[in-house]
Amino acid sequence: MGADHSDTNEMKTQQQYQMFLLQYSKEREYDHNQFGQVKLYNHNQNNSMICIKKLQSKSDTELTQITNHLRKRKIFVHPNLVQLLAVRTCNEQSICSDSSLVMVVSEYFPDTLESELKKRKQPLKKYPESHIWLLIQQIVDPMAFLEEQKQAHGDIQPQNIYLDENGSVKLAEYNYFPGGQHGFQKMLLSKDRAYLSPILLNNYRNMNFKAQHNEYKSDVFSFGMTMLEVLLLEESYDCMDFQNGCISQNVVDQKLQKVKRSGYSQLLTNFVRELLQIEENARPSWNDLKQVIDQFRDKICNLIPFFQEKRQMSPNKLVYSQSYVPQQQILSSPQSKILSSPRQPQVLYQTYHQPQPLYQTKQMQPIPMQQSIYYESGQKQVPIKKITKLDETVSKQVQQPESNLEKTTIKQAETK
């Protein structure tokens, strides 16, 4: 009786799985730089994509570890994280042994920040600063969420920052699929390059596979290197002295000066400088960064400039709301401070007087990033490809007068 019931459930699961796959077509194998070997599928109607990863377990213990990992990851719901859609387990019997096959269905986004940067390099079209802050917000939010879940990313770099059809950021940590390797491991095995923190770079030189480091602070440094690449549209590997196993501070300082000369604000320049502190303990945590972003969140999400320096306050003053007390190491940093904005966003202080729970970020409606839509031509935004209804909304948001602090969502903009 029990066996019959089990067989019925298995058949029902198999039918559901097959019905799900009927919605997709154009199956193909792909060796993904982060996910490894996967099968890619396109939706028959909306052209969205999924990938299916096969994981094979050779024992009940291994199967339990895999399913527990996937069960835990499935509850990591955040608008800027890649989501698991389904997990299916089936038994495989062979002459030599019994094993279990786990089929994992996941969201898949073919576009990456790396591909967007390539488009902007020839010819050179740097990002407007309002788009830079939106990118920062969409990376800091999910990383703060992951840190709260005791999960590091492990390999932040442009090729691992995915973009959905609207241009919004999607992240997947190094072990999104069980068995994944972080950037340091890939470097040691000569599989790929990675933006390593100073501690990891020194361990890489010595080929030490058991590096002792704060993995969240290492992610923050990788984020800083990534932002340097985004701001200057050039790779940041020249900051890494592989022969001596250290970060070249002179090269980092030169790049930060170049960022400032490129027209970006002192606020943004110093924000990136904090990410690139050589001493691990001097770097802010993801939660520290999120609380800085919270002060300007409404303006960032609506692409309203807040970073002009016409009335710059004292460089010795840090920006923080009443609910945010920066860590002492940030306050005592001798090289830089995160400068105050020229205009104090009083409305935002009222909005974020109490820290916002991370899971509530999905209730916000940020304007999706449109990196490849516009380039700067004097003071005018010039479209370089067909403008959609969504693009028009973003263009209107960019052109809003700075005095208008009213937050306008996409839906509200479309009804006006």
Describe the overall structure:
- The radius of gyration is 23 Å and the shape is globular.
- The longest helix has 20 residues, at 2-21.
- By secondary structure, it is of the alpha+beta class.
- Helices cover 38% and strands 16% of the residues.
- It folds into two domains: 2-108, Phosphorylase Kinase, domain 1; 111-398, Transferase(Phosphotransferase) domain 1 (Transferase(Phosphotransferase), domain 1), CATH 1.10.510.10.
- The chain has helices at residues 2-21, 60-74, 113-121, 129-148, 183-188, 198-205, 215-232, 249-261, 266-275, 286-294, 297-301, 328-331, 346-351, 389-398, 410-415; strands at residues 24-32, 36-43, 49-57, 84-93, 98-108, 111-112, 161-163, 169-171, 240-241, 246-247, 374-377, 380-383.
- The strands form four sheets. It has a five-stranded antiparallel β-sheet, with helices on both faces.
- The protein contains 15 helices and twelve strands.
Short description:
By secondary structure, the protein is an alpha+beta fold. The protein is built from 15 helices and 12 strands.
